[in-house]
Write a structure and sequence with these properties.
Blueprint (H helix, E strand, L loop, with lengths): L3 H10 L5 H15 L2 H6 L16 H4 L3 H5 L3 H8 L3 H15 L15 E3 L10 E3 L14 H17 L3 H4 L16 H4 L3 H4 L4 H6 L5 H18 L11 H4 L22 H16 L6 H10 L3 H8 L6 H15 L1 H10 L5 E2 H5 L9 H14 L6 E2 L2 E2 L3 E2 L3 H12 L4 H11 L5 H10 L1
Antiparallel strand pairs: 1-2, 3-6, 4-5
Helix pairs in contact: 2-7, 8-13, 15-16, 18-19, 18-21, 22-24
Length: 437
């Protein structure tokens, strides 16, 4: 919560911001610092989780979760000129992880002590705050064998269900009982993602307690029941629905050559991911879907060589992947090629025009990164300054534009040039770079 001095500065310099929303962001940052997510995400860059990175100044989008969580909301907006829309983007990110901890039904368990600065206290004074969840009912605990059996059965049911392709992107949070123990890690998973977990691996995670495992079973049962029962012969269902295959976890024969030891487990995981996604996803006309099908028709060595080229194969690999895009999705290829000629363009501007809802979020992200690499796209950079939320295939153009604007002596003309020539960049940061150089 802003102290008196910060409130005066905010009122004077940032009257466009709501104090209520800054207090909400402060509360979320505090809860995040004391959650299990802090350790797991501390070195991860925030930009990967932001719905619209263009609304954040680069000084924030390029920071890690650890760097961000160690600051207050007031410090963020006063030091970086973060817009009200940018504040809402940050709130949305942290709500996703720890918003449930701030509900009125939560108090602090005795084992959790949270430190923060009180609004009117000396800076060194420590305030103890409390957060504890009070479940509305007692969750039963099942034996580990029973939990594993029921989860495996539910995973198998989901994988073969004919309605999974239409519902696979729905999150477990849609089926989770809200008035009891919450499990952010589990709730953020989609149905398509959760049913491909290995049960024993999932149950070994420290965050999946016995009670949460039971709640997971209940959530999955609600999901399956919401689809309706699987059709049977007596129900008069069409044979096409009855013929939905169980997912084959074995690589197809044409990819078996990749198991000769020349590729490591992490690299082979890409093939397994594409193979399973292809089985669960019907062919549609959106570009990423068609790209998935085209990749799965290639030889395994060709896929891995295209996605993960050795150092001496990068050039030929780019040519192969660009030709694959050009021949498979020509209209999207030309759009991306034209957009990436700009000095800087966001991933959202590149991919928002094309629907990708038929794919899981994981595979859609893999394919988007593959497309960017195929064009040789990089982040715009000037000396040590890099803009991680933007992409370009003309990295030298950015330096030339900076130099050209820098030769203009009139500050107001510099500002108008930045707005017209670099519309997707953070104006304040660009002007700082120009005046520094």
């Amino acid at each position: 919560m802003p102290n008196d001095l910060e409130k005066q500065k905010l009122k004077r310099d940032r009257s466009d911001l709501s104090l209520d929303r800054l207090e909400r962001l402060d509360a979320l940052l505090l809860a995040f610092r004391n959650s299990m997510h802090y350790e797991m995400l501390s070195t991860v860059h925030l930009v990967q989780f932001v719905e619209n990175p263009t609304l954040l100044v680069d000084a924030i989008s390029q920071t890690t979760f650890e760097e961000l969580a160690e600051r207050t909301a007031s410090e963020l907006v006063l030091e970086t000129e973060l817009s009200p829309e940018g504040v809402e983007q940050l709130i949305a990110v942290f709500e996703r992880f720890v918003g449930f901890m701030l509900e009125e039904s939560y108090e602090k368990p005795e084992s959790l002590v949270v430190n923060t600065r009180q609004a009117h206290a000396p800076e060194d004074q420590i305030v103890v705050q409390t957060l504890q969840r009070r479940p509305s009912r007692e969750v039963p605990v099942l034996s580990s064998i029973e939990v594993a059996k029921r989860l495996q059965a539910l995973f198998d049911q989901l994988r073969i269900h004919p309605l999974l392709p239409q519902n696979g992107n729905r999150h477990l949070s849609d089926y989770w009982e809200k008035e009891t123990l919450r499990a952010p890690f589990l709730e953020e998973l989609s149905l398509r993602e959760i049913c491909h977990f290995q049960v024993d691996t999932l149950l070994k995670k420290r965050s999946v307690t016995p009670q949460k495992a039971v709640l997971l079973i209940e959530a999955l049962e609600r999901a399956v029941n919401s689809f309706g029962a699987l059709p049977t012969e007596s129900s008069g269902a069409s044979s096409s629905l009855l013929a939905v295959p169980i997912v084959d976890r074995n690589l197809p024969e044409k990819w078996q050559e990749c198991l000769d030891g020349s590729w490591n487990c992490g690299e082979l995981a890409l093939l397994y991911t594409l193979h399973i996604e292809r089985q669960l996803t019907p062919l549609r006309n959106d570009p990423l879907n068609r790209l998935l099908y085209a990749l799965c028709n290639m030889k395994g060595e060709e896929i891995l060589g295209t996605f993960l080229p050795r150092k001496d194969e990068v050039g030929p690999s780019l040519e192969v992947s660009q030709e694959l895009l050009r021949s498979t999705i020509p209209e999207a290829f030309e759009f991306w090629k034209g957009q990436l000629r700009q000095v800087g363009v966001s991933a959202e501007q590149l991919f928002a025009p094309f629907d990708s809802s038929s794919l899981s979020q994981c595979v859609a992200k893999i394919l988007r990164e593959f497309i960017l690499r195929s064009f040789g796209a990089v982040h715009p950079r000037f000396e040590s300054e890099e803009f991680l939320s933007l992409w370009t295939c003309s990295p030298d153009a950015f330096s030339r534009v900076i130099d050209m604007i820098g030769r203009e002596s009139d500050p107001s003309k510099q500002e108008s040039d930045v707005d017209s020539l670099l519309p997707h960049f953070d104006r304040t940061r660009i002007l700082q770079i120009i005046r520094r150089s």
